[in-house]
């Protein structure tokens, strides 16, 4: 008698080969058979007409606060995620001195757009060091597995105080203290270290993230600590304005540490060619024996705007602020009122050249309706600008009409990064590059303006089934990229493959009917904070360590998840084909 048997499904085992019909037997937290399963299961799932995959591993989330109050880590778990890795981009909540709680919350609020009120209400501080934070997470109820990375921003502020926040260079003593804390965190089970070197990351007061100008000595000191521990991965985001200098500095981190590094790859319209240069340099590093990867998205980094969202294209208009305190119904009425519209459209706003806000609020050729199911590869012919030209109207009039639809719940989609050609050809190039890995969903972050935690579902539905404006990609390759390859990116070799002896994290998916809903605003964060969630239909079951944790994306109440402490080796006795090892 097996604990759980999945029968009759089309198995995509995570290895990238063609699927095959098979049964899967699970006993305890381990897969014990893949193929013909003899004997019954205490629980059985008939997967006839459905696909069976490993559980999805998301290497780039920001649930560092949410994990202490939410066992289910929504919205990622609406999308088949059974392992989430957080602590990315150099921001998080440990280490942290007791008098710096408010400052760290402000940093996370600014960089990752998580309401400070929710963090104040939700986080029950019980730690100072990173190992203590890990202990707190380990004691928290969890429906899925989580891995933690040490955030350089919190580390720098902990060691250097205000000097670190003011971007002052680290001294040799500062660097030595940081290095020791890195080593301690890695030995306690941190999966790695993360940092940020982008001007886009600022705290709630508009100040740069503390790691923005970290110098070579400081980064090399962290690398030396990783070398001594012989553990961990290094994750970062950088602007690469001086691409040769900055990449060489980061390449040196890998040379010193001997540890893998992954970095964000995005196409920015203001600097449209840097991403290709960085990918070329990553390719050369790999030829030279250095383990570097680009983390790439499944679709554009997409800002979602509207009356219910945190952003809309009229936020810089003084007239708009007249209606901001009103109810949603009253705002919709104002958008339809000729007098209000005339006053709003008569107002002139000066936009600063080169600012992201200028793009978001005035580049009408990149604004689209976000329907249900949402279209993440819209044609330029469907933009606000194109509609306005055809109708002979001011594009802002079109925007006001669109925003008032669906009783004010309509959303405007702005593909901020990776959409310069007006399609996903750049993203396709990123996904197919031999030295990249899927990531950047930012689950748990940017909760009022971005809802990219659905990246895993986009990989399956858009790239594997529905794309019409370009080539589709093999489903077996996409699934391997979101399971085996993302797990191994962060040192997890015990999951991501359906084979005897492997960890029993499994998705059963009604692939033919898998559908994403449009994002919607809910007010379920602590202190009534709002956020976007995006649900799906088609994830029949998501299994964590042998137990069904989610049905149709909704939690069953099972809390079988755990904190992952450090890299995980291939389980003894796991039977994978030799080519997969």
From TrEMBL:
Ranges of residues in domain Amidohydrolase: 43-548
Keyword vocabulary terms for this entry: Hydrolase
Record bears the keyword Hydrolase: yes
Gene Ontology CC, one term: cytosol
Domain of life of the native organism: Bacteria
InterPro entries from the UniProt entry: Amidohydro_3, Metal-dep_hydrolase_composite, Metal_Hydrolase, Metallo-dep_Hydrolases_sf
Sequence intervals crossing the membrane: none
Protein name: Amidohydrolase family protein
């Amino acid at each position: 008698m097996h604990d759980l048997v999945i029968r009759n499904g089309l198995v995509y085992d995570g290895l990238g080969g063609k699927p095959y019909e098979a049964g899967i037997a699970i006993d305890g937290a381990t897969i014990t058979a893949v193929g013909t399963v003899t004997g019954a299961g205490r629980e059985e799932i008939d997967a006839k007409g459905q696909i069976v995959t490993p559980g999805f591993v998301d290497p780039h989330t920001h649930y560092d606060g949410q994990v202490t109050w939410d066992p289910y880590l929504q919205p990622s778990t609406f999308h088949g995620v059974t392992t989430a890795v957080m602590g990315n981009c150099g921001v998080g909540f440990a280490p942290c001195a007791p008098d710096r709680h408010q400052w760290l919350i402000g940093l996370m609020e600014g960089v990752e757009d998580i309401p400070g009120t929710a963090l104040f209400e939700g986080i029950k501080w019980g730690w100072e060091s990173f190992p203590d934070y890990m202990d707190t997470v380990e004691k928290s109820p969890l429906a899925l597995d989580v891995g933690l990375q040490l955030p350089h921003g919190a580390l720098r502020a902990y060691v250097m105080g205000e000097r670190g926040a003011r971007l002052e260079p680290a001294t040799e003593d500062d660097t030595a203290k940081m290095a020791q804390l890195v080593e301690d965190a890695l030995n306690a089970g941190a999966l790695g270290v993360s940092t940020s070197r982008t001007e886009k990351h600022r705290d709630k007061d508009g100040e740069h993230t503390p790691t923005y100008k970290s110098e070579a000595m400081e980064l090399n000191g962290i690398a030396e600590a990783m070398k001594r521990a012989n553990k961990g991965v290094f994750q970062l985001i950088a602007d690469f304005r001086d691409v040769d200098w900055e990449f060489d500095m980061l390449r040196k981190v890998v040379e010193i540490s001997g540890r893998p590094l992954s970095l964000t790859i995005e196409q920015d319209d203001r600097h449209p060619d840097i991403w290709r240069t960085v990918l070329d340099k990553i390719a050369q590093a790999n030829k030279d024996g250095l383990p570097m990867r680009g983390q790439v998205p499944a679709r554009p980094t997409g800002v979602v705007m509207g009356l219910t969202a945190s952003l809309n294209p009229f936020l810089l208009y003084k007239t708009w602020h007249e209606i901001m305190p009103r109810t949603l119904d009253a705002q919709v009425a104002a958008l339809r009122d000729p007098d209000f519209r005339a006053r709003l459209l008569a107002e002139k706003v000066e936009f600063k050249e080169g600012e992201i806000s200028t793009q978001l609020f005035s580049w009408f050729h990149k604004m689209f309706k976000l329907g249900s199911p949402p279209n993440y590869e819209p044609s330029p012919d469907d933009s606000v600008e194109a509609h306005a030209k055809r109708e002979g109207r001011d594009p802002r009039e079109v925007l006001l009409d669109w925003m008032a639809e669906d009783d004010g719940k309509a959303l405007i989609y702005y593909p901020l990064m990776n959409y310069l050609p007006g399609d996903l050809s750049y993203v396709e190039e990123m996904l197919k590059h031999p030295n990249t890995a899927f990531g950047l969903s930012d689950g748990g972050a940017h909760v009022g303006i971005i809802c990219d935690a659905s990246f895993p579902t986009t990989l399956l539905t858009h790239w594997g089934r529905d794309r019409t404006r370009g080539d589709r990609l093999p489903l077996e390759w996409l699934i391997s990229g979101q399971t085996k390859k993302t797990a191994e990116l962060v040192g997890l070799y015990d999951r991501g493959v359906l084979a005897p002896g492997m960890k029993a994290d499994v998705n059963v998916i009604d692939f033919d009917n898998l559908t994403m809903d449009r994002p919607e605003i809910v007010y379920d964060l602590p202190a009534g904070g709002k956020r976007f969630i995006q649900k799906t239909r088609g994830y029949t079951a998501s299994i964590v360590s042998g137990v069904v944790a989610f049905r149709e994306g909704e939690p069953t109440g099972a809390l079988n998840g755990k904190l992952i402490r450090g890299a995980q080796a291939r389980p003894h006795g796991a039977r994978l084909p030799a080519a997969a090892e």
